[in-house]
Design goal:
This protein is mainly alpha-helical. The protein has 11 helices and 2 strands.
Length: 252
């Protein structure tokens, strides 16, 4: 038996050294009886969308359906402009997460927009809701904040921007259901501490400053415990009168 070990790397256009994490090592064992067999098909061809997003799906799951550890959110089916803005924000250091900033450094806008379009067109089943291990009072507090807000504190309901079904609003406001509790809590916390920012005026940062840790925990618990009822999709642009004009809606 002849053992042939070959190492090859996937070279992606414009990615340079960034995506060498996709390098693969293949070990092929051949015998005289196997030499006539056809070579196995390529599993990842350069210059395809599958190759371009391979570094994304390594953490965010196949087709962007979400990672398994609670901190890598679903990308599939989110509004294209929302996904595009997040890629811009990571690349341009408005949103702080070093691995993402490193992967996206130097990538042109059009390239990021194509990636955003790919994930926005993926429609895969949502996971079942998480079981909420909190009190009924905490869940009720989260429900009230999400659907009614708190006018006394100047807090609009999540539904006033993200839609009555919390499915988002075109072109750039995402849905809030089907996300892990840990992810929701960490993102609101990141807005509160300034680790996550959006184009000014940054409405979510303003709202997060008014939320207490208990508020954040209640919202994360209630949102993550809600089932996704199909059809679940962003509402049409202009169908809601937003309580404020946010920079992300005008960002290009």
């Amino acid at each position: 038996m002849l053992a042939l070990i070959s190492f090859s790397s996937v070279s992606l256009p414009r990615f340079g050294a960034i995506f060498r994490v996709l390098a693969t090592a293949t070990v092929v064992f051949t015998t005289s009886s196997a030499l006539s067999q056809p070579a196995p098909p390529e599993t990842l061809r350069p210059d395809t969308m599958a190759a371009r997003v391979a570094a994304c799906t390594a953490c965010h799951g196949a087709q962007g359906r979400a990672g398994t550890d609670g901190y890598y959110p679903r990308l599939a089916g989110k509004p294209q402009e929302y996904l595009y803005h997040q890629l811009l924000n990571f690349r341009d250091d408005r949103r702080q997460y070093r691995p993402m900033s490193h992967l996206l450094a130097g990538l042109p806008d059009d390239y990021l927009r194509e990636m955003a379009r790919y994930f926005s067109e993926q429609h895969v089943p949502y996971p079942p809701p998480m079981r909420a291990d909190v009190s009924s009072a905490t869940l009720e507090a989260g429900r009230v904040l999400a659907l009614q807000g708190d006018a006394a504190r100047g807090l609009p309901a999540c539904a006033s921007c993200h839609g009555a079904a919390l499915g988002g609003l075109m072109p750039a406001i995402p849905g809030l259901l089907g996300l892990p509790r840990d992810y929701i809590g960490s993102q609101i916390g990141s807005w509160k501490t300034g680790l996550r920012r959006a184009a000014a005026p940054d409405c979510m940062a303003d709202i997060a400053q008014k939320l207490t840790p208990s508020d954040i925990g209640a919202l994360a618990a209630w949102l993550s415990s809600q089932p996704v009822v199909e059809p679940y999709a962003p509402e049409a642009a202009g169908s809601l009168e937003l309580p404020a004009q946010c920079g992300s809606q005008a960002q290009r």
